[in-house]
Amino acid sequence: MKMNFDERTAYEKMKAGVLTSSGFLGQDTRPLTDIIEADEELFKALGLDFDQVADRLEALAQKGAEGLGEPITIEDRYLVKSDEARGKLPCPFGDGLYHKNSVSVQRGQDGIIYSDLSIHLLRVHHFCQGQGSPFRLDPVVLKRILY
Q1: To 10 degrees, what angle do helices 7-14 and 32-46 make?
Q2: What is the pLDDT of residues 57-94, one digit of tens each?
Q3: Interior angle at CA 46, CA 2 and CA 5, nearest 5
Q4: Could you point out which of 54, 69, 117, 127 has its C-alpha 20 to 30 Å from the C-alpha of 62?
C-alpha cells in the first residue's frame, strides 16, 4: 500500500490531547500503515466497500439530524442520535476541516459512534481508527449493524 501523507506527522496528530481529547488511536500502538492495512484486509474479508459504508453512515447521520438531538428510529431497526457542536476539526492527514458532531447508531446490542471526520477518514484514508478509540468504526461491528 502506498501512502500519500507524512505518516509520522499524521500519527502524532492522532495522539490523545492533540486534535481531540481522546485522540484517534485508542490503545493501539501499531504503526499507522499497519492499522490501515489490517482494516482494509478485514473490509475485504467481510465483503465491505469503504465508499458504500461511508455513504450509508452519511445517510444515517442526515436522517438522525432530523431528531434535533433526540434519538429517533430509522427504518424500524436503527436508533440514531445526532449531536451538533460548534467548530470544526482538522483531518490529522492534513486534508480538510470537518464539522464537529457526534452520531450514535444502535441496532440491537451493537452500536457505533462517529462524526463527519470519521466518515472522511473511512472513505478517503481507509482509517477506521485504532483499537479502543471511542470513534472506532470496527469493520465487524459495521457489518453487523449495516447489513
Answers
A1: 90
A2: 999 999 999 998 899 999 999 999 999 888 899 999 99
A3: 20
A4: 127
Number of other CB atoms surrounding residue 89 within 10 Å = 18
Dump the DSSP string for 95-112.
S-EEEEEEEEEEETTEEE
Q: How far is CA 118 from the centre of its chain?
A: 3
What average pLDDT score do residues 35-42 get? 98
H or E segment to which residue 125 belongs: helix 116-125
Residue given cell 478485514 in the structure block: 42
Joined together, the cell numbers standing for residue 85 give 457542536
Grid cell locating 33: 500503515
Check: CB of residue 82 under 8 Å from CB of residue 102: yes
φ, ψ for residue 59 (rounded to 5)? Answer: -65, -45
Delimit the domains of the chain by residue range.
7-146
Q: Is residue 67 a contact partner of residue 61, using CB atoms and an 8 Å limit? A: no
Please choose, from the candidates 53, 56, 23, 55, the residue with its C-alpha nearest in 3D space to the C-alpha of residue 40: 53
Cell numbers 429517533 correspond to 72
Give the number of residues written for the chain: 147
